[in-house]
Amino acid sequence: MASASLQFFAFILALFGVFGDIAATLLPNWKVNADVGSNIITAITQMQGLWMDCTWYSTGMFSCTLKYSILSLPVYIQAARTTMVLSCILSAFGICITTVGMKCTKLGGDSDSKSHACFAGGICFILAGICGLVPTSWYTREIISNFLDQTIPESSKHEPGGAVYTGFISAGFLLIAGVIFCSSCFNKQQGGWIYPPKQHHFPSAEQESNAGYNLKDYV
């Protein structure tokens, strides 16, 4: 019962991780630059994401431009696109597989098949968490290095946006869920490998004496 509750808790974490992964992939605020200038009325907030760049004005106007050219993008943005999409796919596969393998569901056949399905789903979650953690870390490193570079003007410096933090948290949820699923199945398999000791039945001394007495009667 405790293992089933733990699996359900890991499944909820994985759901949050999947939704956060998708949101972080689509949000345009991976890095943010606020240019207030001399008048707050003309304040501009520039946001850059993996797929589009957006500009928000204090007057309420909001405009976005899609990044059509892939080859013109920096390497870390191209890598972030690929790994974040791969993370979303792997986490979606993990949700489908663990739904079949969880103890609280009636799918997946016998207990061994469900255990293998849970283990496979946990591996998918771990890989998805790693794929989500790598681009967010690389993207944050590029932002910090550009921010600390003295040769770059202040107007071109950015700070990490909400999408980066969402990606970090989602990757952590996926990693925790994957470890819980894999460890629960591993403990179950270890428990199945422990067999009770064989009991050897030896005839008692009384039985041997009775058998000897009976044999003497026939002599």
UniProtKB/TrEMBL annotation:
Task of the protein: Claudins function as major constituents of the tight junction complexes that regulate the permeability of epithelia.
InterPro entries in UniProt: Claudin, Claudin_CS, PMP22/EMP/MP20/Claudin
Main location: other
Pfam families in the record: PMP22_Claudin
Membrane topology value: Multi-pass membrane protein
Transmembrane segments: 84-105, 117-139, 163-186
Name of the protein in question: Claudin
Name of the gene this protein is made from: Cldn20
Key words, A-Z: Cell junction, Cell membrane, Membrane, Signal, Tight junction, Transmembrane, Transmembrane helix
Family: Belongs to the claudin family.
Keyword Transcription regulation attached: no
Signal peptide per UniProt: 1-24
Subcellular location: Cell junction, Tight junction; Cell membrane
GO cellular component: bicellular tight junction; plasma membrane
GO molecular function: structural molecule activity
